UniProtKB/TrEMBL annotation:
Pfam family, one: Cellulose_synt
Name of the protein in question: Glycosyltransferase 2-like domain-containing protein
InterPro entries: Cellulose_synth, Nucleotide-diphossugar_trans
Binding site for UDP-alpha-D-glucose: 109, 138
Keyword Endoplasmic reticulum belongs to the record: no
Annotated keywords: Cell wall biogenesis/degradation, Coiled coil, Glycosyltransferase, Membrane, Transferase, Transmembrane, Transmembrane helix
Length: 590
């Protein structure tokens, strides 16, 4: 049995939308620049270099691709749109949310990092009775389970401390590394006493996790603290092991913190792995969590976060819920995407891993075209949209009536959940094809978002004033190349598949342009390399590829040159646009 969440009147908007200013001037610029592009292509077609046909063909194709890329990019630039939320207007009865966290390798993703992320999420400013946390450990590591267990113990002290003093950020590793609160609250003796006590508990937790990680073994005295450690009495192979599901904190008021307040549900999940069955990497892990969480708590909203992306804003969930509960537009929204922000990036961000162009420019533009792509982390989904349901204007956010289900038997639920996390459960079922995260693509997140939007759902990009999440980005060449290879091949796979943005259907033209820009991103290196090599070769050999500057330019050319140069100087960080501008600029002044 379900009950609808009806909380606001038709006039009580929970978010508003505002378009960026200066659009008229931008449209003038767009018109002038587009004229310049056609002028450049016209010049190429009417000035064929018969004596150097190969060079002419290469430079023409490169400039044509730059032009197409620039046109696709206008999907982001045409109407940047910003949202404002009003969490103070939310009703007291908020919808439940299941939070899914993924990790896979205790060596690349240290257990202490996982515990820190989990604790930051557990301290959200939200009704704890409405929250359930599920951690997927695809490595099946006892060290990770130990870290989650230690986090569950420390959370009984950390959560009431955060609520009592309203601390930010609520990632303990970050919070205790700064003395700002201690300095600001110096006059409050009660705060200092509790701060010191909680910090001591945190350092104790950190030491226990570090010790187990260093020894590659959990001490016997710790293993006696929870029956779940028995799963590792025999060796667990990360690529071949039984399903492991352990309830570490029982929700619904059964387990309480040190002050007697109820705790949110916390469940450790390591799905079954067999080498003879495909596991589909992160997409498969999230689909397993989706099924397990649906059995145990079945919240209508689902947040997924990577284990290296800790919460930096305790009210992020309230901002997200504003979109889903909005009486006018809420029923259209399939997911809300928060930006990814990173710390520890090299000076000047040598590898561009801050992805600022995407999250500070382009995603705002997608808000005008039914929203951004799914970025794989920091996303709150409507469970129905993930589970294959097409958009229906009559759909309402529904919550299971807990009084009908009765008291939970956590042991029975854990046993039943193991069947949902088995390696053969998806055989012959639509998971990964029609429901859940999509399989068969290296960028399962973008692929899934495209499928959801093709079913009629809209998405929203929202960046709160205080960053919602902070994570870790690659800081060396090898990791950066691996990441970019996965992105580039996966995005191109989408364009060449049956889900090509131009054929998938139910997408706005602006959406098609944005998805085309991303899915064809990898091919952009070809015209860039062509420009990098052909122009110097032509210059060294005295081959004229552009008209001479002594040919008196008419006023139109001067205006176009000025437009290109102004765009180049005003947005130097927009590399894709600027290289197209370089070609246009050279056309008029060289």
């Amino acid at each position: 049995m379900t009950e609808s969440i009806t909380t606001t009147t038709a006039t009580d908007r929970l978010f508003t939308t505002k378009q960026a200013g200066g659009r008229f001037l931008y449209k003038i610029y767009f018109t002038i620049f587009l004229t310049g592009i056609f002028s450049l292509l016209y010049y190429r077609c009417t000035h064929i270099l018969h004596d150097h046909l190969v060079l002419w063909l290469l430079i023409t194709l490169a400039e044509f691709w730059f032009s197409v890329t620039w046109i696709f990019q206008q999907g982001f630039r045409w109407a940047p749109t910003f949202h404002s939320t009003y969490p103070d207007e939310l009703p007291s009865d908020l919808p439940p949310i299941d939070l899914l966290v993924c990790t896979a390798d205790p060596d690349r993703e240290p257990p202490a990092l996982v515990a820190n992320t989990l604790l930051s999420l557990m301290a959200y400013d939200y009704d704890v009775n409405k929250l359930a946390y599920y951690l997927s450990d695809d490595g099946g590591s006892e060290l990770t389970f130990h870290a989650v267990y230690q986090a569950s113990v420390f959370s009984k002290y950390w959560l009431p401390f955060c609520r009592k003093f309203n601390v930010e950020p609520r990632a303990p590793q970050v919070y205790f590394s700064s003395e700002e609160d201690v300095v600001n609250e110096r006059g409050r003796q009660s705060f200092r006493q509790e701060y010191d006590a909680v910090k001591a508990k945190y350092e104790q937790m950190q030491e226990q996790i570090a010790r187990a990680t260093r020894l590659r073994k959990v001490p016997d005295e710790v293993r006696k603290g929870h029956k779940g450690f028995k799963e590792w009495d025999s060796k667990v192979d990360p690529r071949h092991h039984q399903p492991i599901i352990e309830v570490l904190i029982r929700g619904d008021g059964e387990d309480r913190d040190v002050e007697g307040n109820p705790m949110p549900t916390l469940v450790y999940v390591s799905r079954e792995k067999h080498q003879g069955h495909p596991h589909h990497y992160k997409a498969g892990a999230l689909n397993a969590l989706n099924r397990v969480s649906a059995l145990m708590s079945n919240a209508p909203l689902v947040l997924n976060v990577d284990c290296d992306m800790h919460s930096n804003n305790s009210q992020a969930l309230l901002h997200a819920v504003c979109f889903f509960l909005d009486p006018k537009e809420g029923h259209r929204i399939g997911y809300v995407q928060f930006p990814q922000s990173f710390g520890g990036i090299t000076e000047n961000d040598l590898y561009g891993n801050g992805v600022k162009r995407i999250y500070e420019v382009e995603f705002y533009g997608t808000n005008a075209h039914n929203g951004p792509m799914y970025a794989g982390t920091g996303s709150v989904h409507r469970r129905e949209s993930l589970n294959g349901r097409k958009y229906d204007p009559k759909v309402q956010l529904k919550v299971e009536d807990k009084s009908v289900r009765g008291n939970k038997n956590w042991e029975d639920l854990a046993v039943k959940a193991k069947a949902l996390a088995s390696s053969t459960f998806e055989t012959g079922k639509p998971w990964g094809k029609e429901m859940g995260l999509m399989y068969g693509c290296a960028v399962e997140d973008v692929f899934t978002g495209l499928v959801l939007q093709s079913r009629g759902w809209q998405s929203v990009f929202y960046a709160p004033e205080r960053k919602a999440y902070l994570g870790l980005a690659p800081v060396n060449t090898n990791d950066t190349l691996i990441q970019h290879k996965r992105w580039s091949t996966g995005l191109l796979e989408i364009f060449l598949s049956e889900y090509c943005p131009w054929t998938v259907g139910k997408l706005k033209l602006g959406q098609i342009m944005c998805y085309s820009f991303y899915t064809l991103w990898s091919l952009w290196c070809l015209p860039m390399l062509t420009y990098a090599f052909v122009l110097p070769l032509a210059m060294v050999n005295g081959i004229p590829l552009f008209p001479k500057v002594c040919n008196a330019p008419d006023p139109g050319r001067v205006a176009l040159t000025t437009a290109a140069l102004l765009q180049l100087l005003s947005q130097p960080f927009l590399i894709h646009t600027n290289l197209a501008n370089v070609g246009l600029f050279l056309h008029f002044v060289v």
